[in-house]
């Protein structure tokens, strides 16, 4: 029972950290309908940025803020230079463009800053937190809490003036234009915010597993989170993250011994496949009604 | 030489719709084919084995995927898995003593069945969701291959291909393997060009352009999407077998990973969706350009012009590869096929600006 609880709690915390990586994906999809498959690479880049700042001599809090500013600017740049010319192109082109960006970043960032894994110490001890007879990974605990705070903050953000504009734009581009909102600026800002969300995910995951290119493979669980939760729902990111994390921890916890390991990827794939077969728009997503 | 359209007047549909209706194109095809047939005579073994042969096989793979993505408009991000199924099936069949021709056929059929199963599961959805579903297929097939020792021969194992004969012709030496790959690539190219002219191909194109509209004029989208998955997975499986026997000769699961799927999609897009010449050009570009550019920069570095760290050099192919994908999508979304078409049209009527009709 304690084993089960341990898998459950740690899985939930990891899942919340997945949802942090998925948050940027949802923000961008919600505002512009662009599936950003480069989100994993953005997370990796943000982690590298934070590491470089710390390495440069900044204290951690300043490094995180500087990395957030950098990633916000990078998000704006990507939107302006790469995505805006693609408006109106079929989805395969946009998907492939973000994948191209992913490959480019995966080569460029480790190429310039070094490919060997780098430690990113954010001052969390290694000793587990023990509640009753359940051992919790301290880094996951901090990560889960930060993730909840950031997801909550982005929910609140959508109630501010700017957030309301973003929601209007995500609802209907033409109607937003008609009432004088700048659709381009809203989409650019959503890319910037996705960059900031990537900093959160990058710093937390970087502190857990070190900063190197493997951070970009967070894309796969993040995609599962997004598909399960609903591709345009922030609530969905939260619930989907919990579900993907728990299923991806409990099932391998019992099956890995029999199936020869790494069943986590199988669970993640099955979550994607089953969601798409049964309820393609996810738990909280809005069903697309195609008009002819 | 000049004005190669001169004197060409089609007086019936048969001549207007034949494969190469301009004689200059026909001669070009004959010339390229002759060069390809004579290649083992004047290309050194090193280049033949490590550049020309993989280029042919990957062109065949890009054509197989282009059948699905370019003609039917169905995205597939797990095509390497389809090829893996073909490769492993053919090797196991050949090791069990099945004649190579039948082993290849079995590889195609197995790929077709499994690929169509996943396709059928994913066919309720389109666009982005289809991408995700096929991506999940890639990971599932990868996992099964790695974790079932009966298929992969155990974790981290390589499976050597046995020496085989195809209908009495041995496929062992480099030039024999080259001719086998060439034959498959040419066959596939001919098949592709002819599919576009059949009612099946036109139905696929109708579905690609708008599946509701296709349904209205009596083309059942579900049935034809399934048939597209079936056909494409079949040739994909055979290509996987050709890849294993002609090029790799020792197969590991990593040779069919997710990155390979991305590479295949990149080949199709860089080449140009649904184009035969694009399949060949795209495969060549995606395979060779990063290598050539990296080598050029390494030469520059060696001669002291620029100074790059070892680490950056190691990442250069990835950088060029990503930049190439982005560049093509931004500046020439129709791919190399469109560039080729522009050049060809320019020279068809040169020295005039455009033809009269």
Short description:
The complex is a heterodimer of chains A (292) and B (357). By secondary structure, chain A is mainly α.
Describe the protein in words:
The complex is a heterodimer of chains A (292) and B (357). With 292 residues, chain A is mainly alpha-helical. In chain A, 73% of the residues lie in helices and 2% in strands. Chain A has 11 helices and 2 strands; from the N terminus they run ααααββααααααα. Chain A has a two-stranded antiparallel sheet with strand order 1-2. In chain A, helix 1 runs antiparallel to helix 8 (183-209), helix 3 crosses helix 8 and helix 5 runs antiparallel to helix 10 (234-259). The radius of gyration of chain A is 19 Å and the shape is globular. The termini of chain A are far apart. The model of chain A has no long low-confidence stretch (mean pLDDT 88). Chain B has 357 residues and is mostly helical. In chain B, the strands form 2 sheets. In chain B, strands 1-4 form a two-stranded antiparallel ribbon. In chain B, strands 2-3 form a two-stranded antiparallel ribbon. The longest helix of chain B is centred in the middle third of the chain and has 28 residues, at 221-248. Chains A and B meet through helix 4, helix 9 and helix 11 of A and helix 6, helix 12 and helix 14 of B.
